[in-house]
Design goal:
two-stranded antiparallel sheet; 14% strand; disordered C terminus
């Protein structure tokens, strides 16, 4: 898949490559390490805008229907605006490349020797995730199966059975105590 410019033709630079103008980062919104990394990336000065979407979410499935969404929950996945897919170490390197203060590091990490280091970092993160699986904030007390939902901006909140999580904060929406916001 290539990026199409206003003329209807692929918008290419002098080398014939399609420039990257935006990166979508799919991350596990229920993993403390992943949400920490997402927050850190979001706070950095970006040369290429990073857009964060919870892996496996309805938004991710709607935007990328052909993607193996189960795999995106186990490994960071980045998709550029040209449709190119990056996973694991390559995804971390492309995220670093998008950041102003870390682009030079990304170029070093993209070398064969640097990619070995990137793989070790990703393996260490995977070991950490495996050791802490299900032990997010509250010691694993927040589970979607129990009615909890996660908003990357506001954190965990409880959705009573029969209420719609999208209406949270809307007039008339119920809070945890059963009151109505408009009351």
């Amino acid at each position: 898949m290539t990026a199409v410019g206003a003329t209807g033709e692929a918008d290419r630079d002098a080398r014939g490559d399609v420039p990257v103008r935006r990166l979508t980062v799919l991350y596990d919104a229920e993993c403390p390490l992943c949400t920490f990394a997402r927050g850190w990336l979001a706070r950095q000065r970006q040369l290429v805008p990073l857009e964060f979407v919870a892996a496996g979410s309805a938004e991710a499935r709607g935007r990328f229907p052909g993607l193996d969404h189960a795999a995106t929950l186990s490994d960071i996945t980045v998709i550029d605006d040209g449709g190119r897919l990056y996973r694991g170490p390559a995804a971390w390197v492309v995220c670093m490349w998008a950041l102003r203060e870390h682009r030079a590091t990304a170029h070093r990490m993209a070398t064969p020797a640097g990619m070995k280091v990137a793989k070790q970092v990703v393996l260490a993160a995977a070991k950490y995730r495996a050791a802490h699986q299900g032990r997010g904030a509250g010691g694993g007390a927040y589970r979607r199966a129990d009615g909890w939902a996660y908003d990357p901006k506001d954190g965990w909140y409880y959705v009573r059975p029969g209420t719609v999580s999208a209406s949270r904060g809307a007039p008339g929406a119920a809070c945890d105590s059963g009151c109505r916001v408009a009351d």
